[in-house]
Amino acid sequence: MNTEFSSPLLEAAVTELSRLPGIGRKTALRLALHLLRQDTAAADALGNSIINMRHGIRYCSVCHNISPSEVCPICASEGRDRRTVCVVENVRDVMLFENTGMYRGVYHVLGGVISPMDGIGPDELEIESLARRVREGGVDEVILALGATMEGETTNFYIYRRLEGLPVRVTQLARGVAVGNDIEYTDEITLGRSLRDRTLFSDTFTQEF
Amino acid sequence: MNTEFSSPLLEAAVTELSRLPGIGRKTALRLALHLLRQDTAAADALGNSIINMRHGIRYCSVCHNISPSEVCPICASEGRDRRTVCVVENVRDVMLFENTGMYRGVYHVLGGVISPMDGIGPDELEIESLARRVREGGVDEVILALGATMEGETTNFYIYRRLEGLPVRVTQLARGVAVGNDIEYTDEITLGRSLRDRTLFSDTFTQEF
Fold first, then answer.
1. Which runs of E-coded beta strand occur in A23-147?
2. Residue A30: its chain B contacts at CB < 8 A?
3. Coil, strand or helix: which one is A139?
4. Staple B16 to which of A49, A121, B125, B131, CB 3.0 to 4.6 Å?
């Protein structure tokens, strides 16, 4: 859309909004016009919340999750099992696992997955700090909880090799039929693994581990 | 998504972003995490552009389009035909018509369409100021350029009745087959009107009016 804007202020806002992922200039213009229809307090609240978030947020020095303090509430909690470390791609994944209400261990946020296409190698990720956590001791199990994608599997394998020889059990998320999904719509690789990794039916009733 | 956020700053930004139309909490979280990965300048630019736009933008006192000055560049231009006034729903529509490069008249931005469902009556719109422009003279034609929706047609009709008796020609956008569309996929009401309102084929070559 090669739109001639009647205001440089509007044009600037549309340009900035359209830098966000998944937001094109057409959507950005719709958002900007929406904001113009709201009172000034709404625009101030949005604008300031973005600025304050970016400037104010810190990262946990242990697990690299976002944190209001030097060490995040999860790592600092007495109620969490620090011997189990769940390795996730990003901050959102921590929230997803927390929302299951089933995990009592701690986390390690990699900050991405290995992706040569995007120029992301192991050194761009928090893999060395994970190895250090394990070497320092006190960790019994590392759960690799990355996506079942090519990049996720590659990263899982890289971390597995990196931790080889250290006294730690390395596990990964079960692959299987997604809850709510029909067998008919499950691909055969997933079906094969769900068969190989079959579990005791009585374990279905276990809500925590 | 009932997510427990690890930071009140992140939560605030997600809440504000999700107030935007078409952006749910899941998308808002994705946008916020994207901003956290950018440098602080990017968040400042976005936040400030929104605040500055909302505080700085003015509206043309003649046509109610957004404007950097008391009277907008279109209304102020010597090159525009002030006797032809195109009535549009909002600021975006002005841009759309300007982008056609085919219109030399001026505009009148209503600020919406009559929609009892949304509690928008004629008094919420710039209809009285349109009638005043016409009564003050110098306007030969009012082009009703609202959408071919129920609300648009209702508003068209209301304005038509409001201007009745005044020495002005009231026209509306042609209804017909959209350029690029197949006859097969055009509804029969549109087909009927496109037949009734058929035009001289030689007019196809006319680029301006």
1. 58-59, 66-67, 81-88, 105-109, 141-144
2. 21-22, 92
3. coil
4. A49
**Amino acid letter for position A161:** R
DSSP E strands in chain A: the ranges are 58-59, 66-67, 81-88, 105-109, 141-144, 169-172
Probe site for chain A from B54, B94, B113 (most A CB atoms < 10 A)? B54
pLDDT at A47: 97
| Pairing of β B66-67 and β B58-59 | antiparallel
Model-level pTM?
Answer: 0.71
User: Which of B40, B56, B94 lies nearest to residue A9, judging by beta carbons?
Assistant: B56
**Does residue B48 sit at the A interface (CB-CB below 8 Å)?**
yes
- The 10s digit of each residue's pLDDT in A96-107 is 888 888 889 999
Chain B, nearest residue to A45 by Cα: B16
Measured in angstroms, the CA of B197 and the nearest CA of chain A are apart by 30
Mean pLDDT of chain B: 88
Q: Are B10 and A55 in contact (CB under 8 A)?
A: no
Q: Give residue-wise pLDDT tens across range A111-159.
A: 999 998 888 899 999 999 999 999 999 999 999 998 888 898 899 999 9
Which residues of chain A are within 8 Å of residue B47 when distances are taken between CB atoms? 46-51
Helices (H) and strands (E) in chain B, counts: 8, 6
* Min Cα separation A111/chain B (Å): 9
Which are the contacts of A94, defined by CB distance < 8 A and separation ≥ 6? A65, A74, A88, A107, A109, B6
Name the nearest CA neighbour of A87 among A158, A138, A150: A158
Which are the contacts of A128, defined by CB distance < 8 A and separation ≥ 6? A122
Q: How far is B158 from B87, CA to CA, in rounded Å?
A: 13
Q: How far is CA B147 from the centre of its chain?
A: 10
**Contact call for A43 and B22, based on CB within 8 A:** no
Distance CA B5, CA B63 (A): 46
In the predicted structure, residue B1 carries a pLDDT above the cut 50: no
**Would you say A181 and A155 are in contact if contact means Cβ atoms under 8 Å apart?**
no
A132: tokens are 């250090």
**Is 60 exceeded by the pLDDT of residue B207?**
no
- Structure token digits, residue A164: 């080889």
From B73's Cα to the closest Cα of chain A, the distance in A is 8
Best mutation target, B40, B46, B97, to test chain A (most A CBs within 10 A): B46
Which of B4, B5, B11, B20 is the best mutation test for A, with the most CBs of A within 10 A? B20
